[in-house]
Amino acid sequence: MAVNSAAGANESGSDLRRRIKMVARRLFADRGVRDVTIREIAKAADQKNVGVVGYYFGSKENLVAEILIDGAKLIEARRKAHLDRLEAAGGPRTVREAVEALVLPSAEFGDEAAEEAEGFNRFLLLLSLSESGFIDRTLEGRWNTGYQRCLAHIRRLMPDMPAAAKNRRFVFVGAYVSSLLAMREAMIADPSHDHPSWGSDAMLRDIVQTTAAILEAPSP
Questions:
Q1: What is the pTM of this model?
Q2: Which H, E and C letters describe 94-141, residue by residue?
Q3: Where are the domains of the chain?
Q4: Alpha-carbon distance values, 57 to 26, 35, 161, 193 (Å)
Q5: Helix (H, G, I), strand (E, B), or coil: what is residue 5?
Q6: CA angle, 199 then 205 then 206, to 5°
Q7: pLDDT confidence of residue 54
């Protein structure tokens, strides 16, 4: 298949592949996976040949999966490093410390200018709202062991309550954190307004503190 790249005749296949993922993730982050077409992705990547996405990824589903895996692997590496430091010092000793290991790696990854990071938290939130089963099937526990370690520490450190109540809190926290990180990412990326509070360390501390409060609130 001949791939027509308007971005430059010297662009390698691997570079074009990365660019397709970058523009697709931006579109998915803005509008969700279902509402973005292959044609739109090709156009955003400066490709006249609509078949370029199929050529490099086989299908839209494979493209979405690769974007998901790329981000999950990088966040997982950050989270494991964060937990390794905590555990080497005998921690985490509080729910808040364990929540920091949950929240900060995702937030800091989303702040990067790297192609693999831009829009990822928004992409992940919209994907989880429409295709949560797809996320579970795609990751299959391979890139969430750090996440599971965080949950194990949190479960250990939470106040005494039935296991079912703890599980409900985890559901609340998942929705709360993912929504806030996606909103924070959108505000920081918004070129039309200055949103200094969203990019501040105080905002991240508040996200961590209020998440810990959800987990530590007395069970009714």
A1: 0.87
A2: CHHHHHHHHHHHHHHHHCCCCCCCCCHHHHHHHHHHHHHHHHHHHHCC
A3: 65-216
A4: 17, 19, 46, 36
A5: strand
A6: 95
A7: 94
